[in-house]
Every structure is written in structure tokens, then in C-alpha cells.
Amino acid sequence: MAKSWTLLGSNGQYVRRPLDAFLADMGELGLKSLDFVPQPPHLWLSHAEYEEPAPLLEKLAAAGLRISVLTPPACRYSITAPRGRQREATVDYYRNSIALARALGAGQVVLGAAGACWDLTPEALLQNAAEVLERLCPAAEAAGVSLLLAPVMGPETPLIAESPVLGRAEELSGLLRRLESPALGVCLDTNVMASWGDTIPRWFDLLGEKTGLIRLCDGNSHGWRAWGEGCLPMERFAEELRSAGYAGALSLLLPGDRYGGNPDWPHRRAVEALTRGGAA
Fold this sequence. Notes:
It is a single chain. The protein is α/β, with parallel strands linked by helices. Helix content is 40%, strand content 15%. The chain contains nine helices and ten strands. The chain has helices spanning 19-29, 54-63, 85-104, 122-143, 169-179, 190-195, 200-207, 234-243, 264-276; strands spanning 6-9, 33-36, 66-70, 108-111, 146-149, 184-189, 211-215, 218-220, 223-225, 249-251. The strands form two sheets. It has an eight-stranded parallel beta barrel, surrounded by five helices. It has a two-stranded antiparallel ribbon with strand order 8-9. The longest helix is centred in the middle third of the chain and has 22 residues, at 122-143. The radius of gyration is 18 Å and the shape is globular. The model has no long low-confidence stretch (mean pLDDT 96).
């Protein structure tokens, strides 16, 4: 049973702050590893190119930090895109993400089905995702990088819905079985999981061996929240993760920019709660 986890800080909420401010906050909190979002003003990434990573690596080294996970924002890219320009741009974007992850020393890239076209049938969207991932998995395997599918918000959360597919653990499990790639796994987001009615025990029954990362997020049907500001039973979730024997990392990334004016707050809340509970 896991008694402690490595906590990964994230710049996801720091869209209004310079990189140096983020690195200083991580150092103050004693965090050493990151779930890094390649976003302005910190690092540029697109389907056409990505920013030279050497300056970022120098700053990380000076701060005693390393990037373990890369989480490229979906933007207008989507793994569920039908054949055409959007799909080709999506494939190029995630290939660049894989190359950037390797250059940064990150072993995992997180992606999901956000940006799906709701006019397409679920069957068509799942087929599109399988076709895109079939092209990405060989590149990831060759680079020594794992692709982790994160569940996305669906129709039960209409204000923040991202896709009608690939939110349920059962659907994610089915896609992994279909592709059978050693480079493909999953990332559990507890807020998304709860919105679909899944549970941690059920998730681990279906996807335990494929779970490479967990985002222990509080939240509600309107989005992600700092620890204790949502409606989820966070202490119970932590205990269920221990019972499941999860020994990987916990990412403190919260999607969105709700805390953009005070981006260190969610980190401080989570670190305090997890340290108090003996998890970190």
C-alpha cells in the first residue's frame, strides 16, 4: 500500500504570471517535479514548431526542478477530429509534444478527447480517436515517452463539456484494449471521474495497471476547485488510492484559469492537506 506520493506542481494556473514567479512558488513549497503545460508566456508549442527548450531547462536546473509530465493544451486540436486539416494538425501537434517531452526529459504526455464535434456519432468519434492514436503511439514508443489519456468532461457537465466520449473508465479501457500499445496508458482526474459517476475502485478494476498519473482534483459540475472548495470527498479519495496500492505521482494541475489571480493557492491547499494526511 502506498504511504506517500510524489507531488507534481503545475504552471497551468499561472497564465498571467511569468515563469520565474512560478518557479519561485514551487521552490517555496518544496516541490521538485512538474506537470508542465507548454503555454504562453512560459513556452511556445504548436503543430508547426516548438520553442527551443534549452533556456527553460537552464532555469529549471537552477531552481532544482524537473519536468516529469508534459500536458499540452488541446486548443483547437482534437484526437477525435475526422480526416482532414484539423486531424493532420492534431497529429503534428502531438508529435511535436512527444519530441518536446523527450527534449525536456519528461516521460509522459497527457492528452484527451477535448474539442470533439458533438454532431458526430460516438462511434465515429471513437473511431477517429483510434486512428489518430494509432499514428501517435509508434512515435511515442520510439521516443521512450508514454501517452496518457485523461478523461474529459461530458454531457453531465454542460457548462464545461468537452466531449461525449472518452470520459468513462469503461470507454477508455475499451480504447486501450483496441490499440494494445505499450506506449498508451491513462491519467485519472478525480473531478472528471466523479462527474461521469465512476469511482476509484471501479477505475482501478478496469485501468489500474494502465494508470500512469493521477490528478487528485476537487471540483463540481462547474469545474475544478482547490482542495476543500469543491464538493468531492478528497480524504476518502486519498484513502481509496492507498487501498488500491497506487504508488505513482499525484499531479496538482487544475485545468482552467479560475485561480489565475492567485495561482499558488491551489498548490498550497493541496500540499497542506496531503502533508497533514501523511500522503506527501
